[in-house]
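Researcher: I'm preparing a figure for a lab meeting and need a structural model of a single chain. I don't have an experimental structure, so a prediction will have to do for now. The sequence is pasted below. Please return the structure as tokens so I can convert it later.
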Amino acid sequence: MVTITDKAKERIEEIMSSENYDQNYFVRVAVESGGCSGLSYKLNFDNEEKKGDQFFEDNGIKICLDIKSYLYLAGTELDYSDGLNGKGFEFHNPNASRTCACGESFSV
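Model: Understood. Here is the structure written out token by token.
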């Protein structure tokens, strides 16, 4: 399961509101091949369920993972930073053995 911090929840709700996404939309989190460490995170909004999707809810946010991504992301925390060092969503993944300096890719 992926957990959502309060800051990430606030930002997700802001995006959903500004894009006029209704309650049928959810956050889709996935892992793809790529990035300087081998695997990269992908986050978007979706309203279509796909075969093998795993759904969770945390902090009032509905989250979807495909089964492959679930294996890499179990126990991950999704946070949001708006500080001077960068702005955007951050993944705190306990399964990652190595991450790149930008935090957008990892390896296990």
